[in-house]
Amino acid sequence: MRDTIRIGCGAGFWGDSPEGPRQLVRSGGIDYLVLDYLAEITMSILARMKAKTPTLGYATDFVSLVMKPLAREIAEKRIRVVTNAGGVNPEACRDALLAAFAEVGVDLKVAVVTGDDLSDRAEQFRAAGVTEMFSGAPFPAKTASINAYLGAFGVAAALDAGADVVVTGRCVDSAVVLGPLIHEFGWTPEDYDQLSAGSLAGHILECGAQATGGITTDWRAVADDWADMGFPIADCRADGSFEVGKPDGTGGRITPPIVAEQVVYEVGDPAAYLLPDVICDWSDVRLEAVGPDRVRVTGARGLPPTPSYKVSATYADGWRCTATMMIVGRDAALRAEKVGTAILARSERLIAAAGFDRFAETSIEVLGAETSYGVAPAASPAREVILKVGVRHASRDALQIFAREIYPAATAMAQSLTGFAGGRPEPQPVVRLFSFLIDKRDVVVSVKTGDAAIEVATAPGTERSVPETAPGEVATAPVPDGPTVAVPLVALATARSGDKGDIANIGVMARHPDFVAPIARALTAEAVRGWFAHHVRGPVERFDWPGLDGFNFLLHRALGGGGIASLRYDPQGKAMAQVLMDMPVPVPAAWLQPGGRLEGVAAMETRR
């Protein structure tokens, strides 16, 4: 057993730059190259691809832009590759890989992990009365895909069988890193702390350059590096500790605040983050700078997993159509809103005349007028904005009427209306997510290598429910008495936001322990819900995150349905952390004086 295993992540989504894998293979000194391609949106796209062409349904970029050009170097350096690029058709991905390897004269053994695809059991789930785990909705009449989120032991079994390349379908994103660690260090299903730590390593790496400062709050520190960002590496040890870095000479930064932003990304309760192999308690995770662009991560703990896999099904729910245009001049935002309202009214009149029902949903956003902050167009001083008008309907033909009525606005409505991006908009299918749980014993996980198939034993999990975790509290220092002034949250904290379906998460980390108390007082769950009242339709939860001097917020029903079901310009909540950064937080006035904690930071005049 080696003391340290070096794993590099070369892709955080389908469409990520092939520069990442090239960089890691050629200068990363890695033992494993992992690539994460899948999201709920991606699965629905791949399902449509496979429905049209049975030999597709996988991330084709993985074969054409990554493995074929790098296969010889990967073989020579004995780098092993793990990826979920198989999507909804991992066997087709394997076949394409083998053909590419034959073309370049390289012999690499490919194994496929199967068992996640449950699409042939739709009728069984429907008959059993399966309901959506968040909304309680009934099982859809017709599904496009049904996939369980598998764990990492299938990946480990494939590596145990000698695979050079492991291709999976749907698994949890972190499994592409945890699987190699299980294989290398011999971790068992009962090594909960190690499994949690390995999952955390995967969680940090899985989004590629996000972990190296790609979308950090303090963007000025890395902006000059954006053209050549480094991709992340983790040096992992058998005890579960690891250090995060990047290849020498590449752009970006590895610092505790930057790594912390990735740790909080798309997490719920930090003391009970549910994965198939372990319940992760990351509430006391510690980040320590141990050198230039080097951060040590410790403190992850684990609990026995639940007996269920989470399953994500996708289904068609009509059509959507979105158009954008620019409006310039005085009262631009208000004129844009009036144009959007007029286009919708005109279109609704015409589709009614054609015998169609009303739009199922409409959306007007005036981009550039601080719509994301809930500012009314009439109150915006912006003189240059982009109008976005979106609609949803059961009929594609009804949306074609809407699409035809966009261009006439250029001569019938506001002066300066211009910039119709991409021509007449085309209706796109709406694909919704339907999540539910399935007993692990009802899912057979197998590894296919050559002509052999190996069934993978999966720990069934405990029969009890998720343990009640005592909410950890962030330690707060006393705040001096006296006058206070308001400063923007960004002066006190960094933050990152993400999504899970129609739930947005925003992780907030104090820049200094003294800032925790004022943040805690100002950013109550109720206050955050009020700040996002123009978006949030459900409750807001707040979780303390003691190890990071921070908090994690879950905003339920905040994304207009989420993913490609949403008509929002930001359907995945990527901008929500930055919106929260402007929230005013009262702090002692003395902190802004010479020698104070916030010397040089101006008080904030709130506009809301």
UniProtKB/TrEMBL annotation:
Domain AtuA-like ferredoxin-fold: 487-585
Pfam families the UniProt entry points to: AtuA (PF07287), AtuA_ferredoxin (PF23544)
Domain Acyclic terpene utilisation N-terminal: 5-448
InterPro entries in the cross-refs: AtuA-like_ferredoxin_dom (IPR056362), AtuA_N (IPR010839)
Record's protein name: DUF1446 domain-containing protein
Source organism per UniProt: Prosthecodimorpha staleyi
Lineage: Bacteria, Pseudomonadati, Pseudomonadota, Alphaproteobacteria, Hyphomicrobiales
